[in-house]
Each structure stands twice: as structure tokens, then as C-alpha cells.
Amino acid sequence: MRYWLFKSEPNVWSWDDQVAKGDQGEEWDGIRNYQARNFMREMQIGDRGLFYHSNIGKEAVGVVEVCATVHPDSSTDDPRWECVDIRALYPLGRAVRLDEIKAEPRLAEMVLVNNSRLSVQPVSEDEWRVIHELAGSLAEA
DNA sequence: GCCAACGTTGGC
DNA sequence: GCCAACGTTGGC
Predict the structure, then answer these.
(1) Strand B and A11 CB separated by under 7 Å
(2) Which one, of A47, A116, A37, A43, lies nearest residue A79 by Cα?
(3) Distance (Å) from CA A80 to C1' C5?
(4) Are A89 and A62 in contact (CB under 8 A)?
């Protein structure tokens, strides 16, 4: 199983919106960046991801699971763009803010810190554990 | 609201 | 295939 991070502006699509979709999940559509799309192509069902609020909040708020592998993005006719489906699994014990992530030496290599514009990105297993530690959540939840 | 960083586009 | 111009993202 691999770990990822999904960025969303909460005024457009928030964690609460994601939770409201329930177990059926929702397309992670609208990605128009090759790097991000290529990461989605690597995703497997059951992979986990952090749900991160950009712009407003700037914090990781919950954990999602990939529930459909990559398929055409229904929000465009352009065949270049594909996406996966994700569903909400559980909220973090508390939100972990970007400034905390930047202040944590063990997270200095996170893509979020070094390439803040990439909207879908991989997270290492160590980083995954540290985020959960900061959130007061069990990584195995 | 500003602007730096980055990605994409298109002319050559 | 280079690179200038432009558009977008996202932190501040």
C-alpha cells in the first residue's frame, strides 16, 4: 500500500463535502497537471491519502482511501486527463497545519514543503506516521 | 491582494 | 528544441 496527499481548496471541495459522499466516494477530477495525473495512474485500490486544505486552513484534516483506479476525468472531453475515485476513511485526531509540518525536521523532505504547487503527491511511510503522531491518531486506524 | 514559483504554450 | 510570454497555484 502506498501513501499520497490530495490538495483541495475547501471553499471548492472540502473534507466535509468528501465525508458527505460516503463510502461510494467521488472522482478526484479537475487535475490538469501531468505530474499529478501520473501519480494517480500509479494508485491502487486501498492506497491511503491525506486530505489537505490549501489556501484556507492550510492543514491536513483527514484520511481518504482510493476506491477506484484511474479512469477518464468526466469533467473534460480532453482524453489526456484521468483521475481516481477516493472516499473518506477517518478524520485526523486534529488538523495538522502547514506551519507545523514545516517546523518538523522529520517532514523536511515532504513534497508539500518543497513543491507547494503539486496538487497530488506521494507521501512516504515515515512521513505518514509522523503526521499521525502530530495529529494524535493511530496510523493503522 | 500580491507575488514568487512553476508549468504550459507557441513562435521561431 | 529553445525560450519568452503567459496563466495558475498557493503561501503570505
Answers:
(1) no
(2) A37
(3) 24
(4) yes
For residue A23, the one-letter residue type is D
Task: Please tell me the class of the A3-135 domain.
Answer: alpha beta
Mean of the pLDDT values across residues A29-47?
94
A58 touches strand C (CB under 7 A): yes
Domain spans of chain A, in order of start: 3-135
Helix, strand counts (H, E) of chain A: 5, 6
Q: What local confidence, expressed as pLDDT, does residue A141 receive?
A: 54
What's residue A107's pLDDT?
95
Residue A36 CA to residue A46 CA, distance in Å, equals 18
DSSP-derived pairing of the beta strands A120-123 and A3-8: antiparallel
